[in-house]
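Hi all, long-time lurker, first post. I run a small reading group and we've been trying to get comfortable going from sequence to structure in the token notation. Rather than ask abstract questions, I figured I'd post a concrete chain and ask someone more experienced to write out its structure so we can walk through it together at our next meeting. Sequence below, copied exactly:
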Amino acid sequence: MKEVTTVPANGLLYVYAPMCGTCAIASRMLEIVEATKDGEWIQKANGNFIPEFLEQAQVMSVPALLKVKDHQVVERLYAFQNVQNVFAFCAE
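-- Answer (accepted) --
Happy to help. Here is the structure in token form:
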């Protein structure tokens, strides 16, 4: 996953907190999902560096996987239940 400090215009954005254990597990799931395609196609951002966006997008908690289209969050995933669930969210 590519680390970013700004929100992409389009694509998948994984928001995490560095000291979050659940975020570490979710990150590993996303690495597995990302390995199904060539290259880095999921971007990740430390939530501490994008607080204005998180407030504007009404992100309630981390970890969060956001589908961003035209700078707007169109769908979000908070419950990283398993790799299959995360893969299904990414494939939609």
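A couple of things your group might point at:
The chain has a mean pLDDT of 93.
The two ends are 19 Å apart (CA to CA).
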